[in-house]
Amino acid sequence: MQNTFIGKNPSVLWFLLGLSVFTVVVTLCSEALGADIISTSFLKTLGKTLCLCLVAIAMDVVWGYCGILSLGHFAFFGIGGYAIGMWLMYARTEDIVVASLQNATLPPTPDEVTTAIGSQIFGVVGSSDFPMIWALSHSLTLQLLAVVLVPGLLALVFGWLAFRSRVTGVYLSILTQAMTLALSLYFFQNDTGLRGNNGLSGLQNVPGLEAVSQATLSLWFFWGSAFALGAGYVLFAWIVSGKLGSVIRAIRDNEARVRFLGYHVESYKLFVFTVTAMVAGIAGALYYPQAGIINPAEIAPIASIYLAVWVAIGGRGRLYGAVIGAAVVSLMSSWFTGGAAPDINLGFYVVQWTDWWLVLLGLTFVVVTLFFPKGIGGVFDLIAKRKGDTA
Amino acid sequence: MRHAFLALMILMGSVLAVSAQTLQPILQTHTDEIASPSRNSVSVALDDLVASGVPQVTDFLEQWVERNIWQRDDGVFYIAVEDGDELTLTDIDTGAQSMAPAAGFTQLRPNGGVRRVIGTALVQFQLLDPDLTRRETAVASIARRPEAGQLAPLLASIDGETDAALKARKVQLANFMSARFADSPADRIAAITSLSADTSVEARAVLNQILSTSSGVAERAPDGNIAMIHDPMLDPEASYGLLVEADLAPPRQTPSDIRTTLEANIDADTIAGFAVAEMNDPAKREAAYAALSDAGLAPLLITAPVRDAALSAHVFYDLYDEDDVEITAAASIALRSVETRVSTAQAVDLTLDALSLASIFFLAAIGLAITFGVMGVINMAHGEFIMMGAYTGFVVQQFIPNYTVSIIVALPLAFAVTFAAGVAMERLVIRHLYHRPLETLLATFGISIALQQLAKNIFGTQARPLTSPDWLAGAWVLNDVIQISYIRIAIFVLALIFLGLILYILKRTRLGLEVRAVTQNPGMASSMGINPDRINMMTFGLGSGIAGIAGVAIGLYAKVTSEMGSDYIVQSFMTVVVGGVGNVWGTLAGAAMIGFGQKGIEWLNPSNTLAAQTYMILFVILFIQFRPKGIVALKGRAAGD
Amino acid sequence: MSTLLEVSGVSVNFDGFKAINNLSIQIAEPEMRAVIGPNGAGKTTFMDIVTGKTKPDEGRVIWGEKSVSLLGMNESQIAQAGIGRKFQKPTVFEAQTVRENIVMALKNPRRPFDVLFKRGGNDAEDRVRAISDDIGLTGALDQTSGALSHGQKQWLEIGMLLAQDPRLLLVDEPAAGMSPAEREQTTDILVRAAKTRAVVVVEHDMEFVRRLNCKVTVLHQGSVLAEGSLDHVTKNKDVVDVYLGR
Fold this sequence. Notes:
Chain B: Keywords: Amino-acid transport, Cell membrane, Membrane, Signal, Transmembrane, Transmembrane helix, Transport. The structure holds three protein chains of three kinds. Chain B is an alpha+beta fold.
């Protein structure tokens, strides 16, 4: 079956090949191996970009293939980040606290340790008690489960409610946007126990790996992200190329007809919505340790809309399109807004890219939607077609 | 009229009658009490001064309090102003002015207690002063700090009061003071009972002062007017804290106290026989501490049973400062009745608040509802049109300094600007995306990003003010609880006007007829000669134009920033979705539901507006479950699928 | 021949307009039935009710030997119970190949995980081939179905119906927009299908109905006006009045 799957999906092979070559080249150029061509911070940017590509293909499956324009998948991404961030922050603070209490005259009681950790973590919001939501934060295994299960469960409950009442199209988009807004407002509150708008920080330090340099650690995370992207790509390619893919594309094109074929449309939507949410959670859990910090602004509705923008520009309904879109747009965004792009002097006005990049992006997006609905991926079709014509 | 004339005559007569008298001799008889007064001695002098009825007394007392009275070395008093080494003297009786070197004079510097006694005496003069402002000042000063001694002069001044408003105020104040200071309990109870219908902050303060308690703890309850006996076991830690404060029990050891004590008693590697290494176990720590305590090296450990025993041996009570049981009972009843009224008033206030929030949502959402309902187009840039309207208002105010005129100019101009922007957007973008609603959503979102950043580039990131004219600045105060700012009333009125206008346009005009035709059946409408392109363009322009006006209205009470649009967009969508698409009444219902819902949740959890928004959104998501097509749903075949 | 579907006393209101008024129809298995009637007679609404798209205000819809009520079931459950429907406008999934369209319709477990892991679909290729032979689209199996002609789309849709292996086929105007040759082929497909199952055809075209050579039910204003052979109902005075508007 694997043979036929790859045979039917040559793009998967090309993609994996490209990703492997990219990974190897970046590794060889990295600081960790002594070559100073790619700095550690740029290596982190590349690793983060891979995670964004992963969440973008999840978005592509739910939107491009199943027709659900979810404006909530970046919130699932953020939740994944928070879930792993809680463990990173707890475990690292615990290490520090235990080390500092080592020299105390009396060995510390568990209570004293907890209180010390609590005041370290929650001092910024004027508290030292551990909120309920941190109950599992001491356990890496449980928090890793939470990375997948919390977004999955949330998507399951929300999706069940929304799909069951047959909310579709733009209504559904707005409803998911409302969900995202509610989530980000929830995370913003100090009462929630996730440090309000301070968010979680210091996530780049992995407890137990203090001896490993950031250069090496970044490389590991880069590998992890590349592997996750590859695995995610294969998983989704497998899902969308089979009969299930056929059904969800049919749902995208004519939901009512699929129902009369005897498929329970809601279950399929729910399946796709939930699985992609879980993958988004995993992508977030890989992203934020490389970013080092997460706060509720990351979850705001705008982030999910940018995700849709990436997929649309890259070309939806094709997985590599989403990867291209996410990589190109997010790398360009950080290049332009990072101040690295040269300003353009028009004589009467100097165009500063930090100010004008978003205007350009917004308008580009309008143009792409109007004139290139297939996005960058559509170019591949043109090439393929030309080849077919000449052959 | 005749009464007033009569009163005037009497007043003039009395002024004439006493003006012959002089104050200086009376002062001289009390020279010691005045020159170096104490709180007790000064009252003798004051009584004589008051009894004399000399009109200069008021001025003298005022200047005395202000420390402007100087005594010459021969004992004569003057009103004087220091000017370098010189004094500008004013004769107390004649008012004649002269200059003299300061060296021969001593300034009278009454202390705070004396000044208060003088002030009290002064009040009765001020209450009767011919000058209305002075009388008002006097009443206000009594109200600020009511004292028992002021009640009688206040009551005495009521009958002669000529100003109706001040008289009413005097009566009210006298009533408040009778409740607290009247001599006979019956008078007090009568005054207290009369307060049960008064929701003002002042009346509530009076009742609360009568009911003020001091809490205490003792082995047995003291005699007196006990307000409440507390059960210490409800919060044993806090109750024990009270015991400790009252020195009735030793303080409880905190974990860190225990640790300090243990650390102080380390003997090699053990503490009272326990290994130091074992001290990471809380039970072991306690045992070690107990051992230390047995050995007399530490105070007894206050464990939970010890604490509870101490608690049950004491009574925790609240004692009324007022001794008379009947008075406190009457005050409790009155306060309860006042509180009922206050909460009714609060409910009214909350309703008004919710109404104005609903009007804002309505204004923000109605344009969206029109474009969504008629064209099936989701305009994500709607929020940015609101922002555009607000910035139009801001720019207009830069050119027209008169706020009233500038608002009058800004409203139609904002409509024109956003109408034009809407038409341009419809022509350039939306027209090409009909029947692809998701793409429209995304394209308009691209426009929204671009417009937001553009506004940031032009106007900067800081908030810009949109100042409302003075006549909109205040608030309409119904009573101490219910008040609503004029700006919110104006927004409410604006929302009403737009509701009427839109209903008129849709129901009574040719455009409205054509819009409804296109909404219900675009194919049939176009075959009947209606140009759907034109209708769509007009509709979109209209929806955008209203957003511009909403922008001016919102800008007036909130700050104008480039991000203000995104603050309203999700709520606006919620309003449209909850209300039911394509129906003005639906939007109204949606706005009302979201406005009232949000205020209601805020009322339940006032500390947290973020939470109110969160729960409101959750509520909307659940609401959609039960009415997927909104409150006012189109039924039957017209609704389509 | 036993009763497969029993619709009795069903009424539906759309904002005061009675689309269906106390309608009662019985369909046996196997049977071929034609339903005719003027515009607005309630033919499509009748199908909507049977397939679960519209819920009636009153009446019963009973299905199969176990006499299950269809009113409590949703569209997909009804479809799984064995009722297939072909819409007036051909609605095949144009972005997908003919094969994908048929495979999707094949009678297999329909839950997401069954589909994902392709449970119970071992003889799929044979069945696809048999159906494509039946509808004459074997040569076009790997074509995108959007590229098919109008008539071919109609057959593909009928093929998808057959792939579902339903006990009752509801076919809405199958011959609309077809050439005479295509019509003949469509008639053959339907007649063959009706040998083993119940087929209900809604049709305007009398010639087409005549070729089906079956019992005819005439609907008018939401209820049954006449029932019997085509010759019988066309002689019915009411039917003549309704059709000629007298």
